[in-house]
């Protein structure tokens, strides 16, 4: 059971990593780095400050879906604890990202609203599926004499 939980957390984080890369690729297409970009911290901060609001508004639900997908898969493979571990690790990552980069306040607040909603949604869907299948199993089994 412990190995399955560790595997669930690992796969959940891999899913999150792949989905975040997809979001960042979208971001790079719609708001590319300047030609003379050197990758310094100051240049990254300047680039983030120049994000158009529509790009951030588009990225927000994409990030939420990355959280949803990774938490959902972690719980599907493991259990509630595995999904909460993935959610906690992603929350820490988002916190560091928002702490280090100058995003607008509305975007930071929206992330902290969307993140728990995506987490609770993924957990709720999994729990509903488990509860429904358990109830179906109970209906089809006849009581023992």
Would you write up a description of this structure?
By secondary structure, this protein is mainly α. The protein is built from 5 helices and no strands. The chain has helices spanning 2-30, 41-49, 53-77, 80-100, 105-140. The mean pLDDT is 90.
Uncertain segments: none
* Dominant shape: elongated
The description of the largest β-sheet is:
none
Distance between the termini: 33 Å
Helix percent reads: over 70%
Instruction: Count the DSSP helices.
Output: 5
Return the average pLDDT rounded to an integer: 90
Please state the CA-atom Rg, rounded to the nearest Å: 19 Å
N-to-C SSE series? HHHHH
Kindly estimate the percentage of residues that lie in beta strands according to DSSP. Answer: under 5%
SS content category: mainly alpha
Which labels suit this protein?
145 residues, mainly alpha, 5 helices, elongated
Brief characterization of the structure:
The protein has 145 residues and is mainly alpha-helical.
Task: Explain the layout of strands and helices.
Blueprint: H1 2-30, H2 41-49, H3 53-77, H4 80-100, H5 105-140
